[in-house]
Design a protein that fits this description.
Length: 208
């Protein structure tokens, strides 16, 4: 599939299988989400552009390579919060924006309630985080908000995605690369990913 990167690292596959398990409790679920986000953070930053700068080592001068573009980490509230700390661990200088959206239970369309992005978001490489890409409505709307602020480099990072969500983001935002931990079979009649993991926000925060 066009600009979709499905993770094939054994550690990611192992941890996603544990995450799916209905017997995984909230504490373990949060820890696994952190660990998977950390591993996916490594993959989705693999080709960030570098600039060269002189570095003085105790042995003399060399040319070091540093990440060129500053990063903005943007979780979609609330489940995206479960991936933020891992990304910050990897890119501690990143700024963090927040987009608050929830899916209307009946229409499945996203409803916005909060949006606060770094003032210089247009200059940054944006990593948009949400554990679940189901119908794609939330991600497509969030990408729309970020683009309205002038950002042009956006990557979407999801732990689990449905083909329907990938197709919607592709259709509305063909320029956005999507990194998914696993690409599942389908959505059920309530818009939940099958086999998926259930409700990511509820499992992360114990509100089941
Ligand atoms: C979940 C999930 C995504 C969205 C995915 O959030 O975290 O944001 O659903 O569904 P979509 O692709 O069909 O839009 P939810 O709306 O349940 O809100 P929450 O994170 O506050 O629980
Ligand atoms: N949101 C979730 O948390 N899980 C799904 O399967 C779909 C949307």
């Amino acid at each position: 599939m066009r600009n979709v990167y499905v993770m094939d690292h054994p550690l990611i596959m192992h941890k996603i299988s544990m995450l799916r398990d209905k017997n995984t409790d909230t504490k373990e679920f949060r820890k696994l989400a952190y660990e998977i986000a950390l591993l996916m953070g490594y993959e989705c930053t693999r080709d960030l552009t570098l600039i060269e700068q002189a570095v003085e080592t105790p042995m003399g001068e060399t040319v070091g390579k540093f990440i060129d573009k500053q990063v903005a980490i943007v979780p979609i509230l609330r489940a995206g919060l479960g991936m933020v700390d891992a990304m910050l661990e990897l890119v501690p200088a990143a700024k963090v924006g927040h987009i608050g959206l929830y899916r209307d239970h009946d229409t499945l369309e996203p409803v916005e309630y909060y949006c606060k992005l770094p003032t210089d978001v247009e200059e940054r490489q944006v990593l948009l985080l949400d554990p679940m890409l189901a119908t794609g409505g939330s991600a497509a709307a969030a990408i729309g908000f970020i683009k309205k602020r002038g950002a042009t480099n956006i990557r979407l990072v999801n732990l689990i995605a449905a083909p329907e969500g990938v197709a919607r983001v592709h259709e509305e935002h063909p320029d956005v690369d999507i990194y998914v931990g696993a690409l599942d079979e389908k959505l059920n009649e309530h818009g939940y990913i099958v086999p998926g993991l259930g409700d990511a926000g509820d499992r992360l925060f114990g509100t089941l």
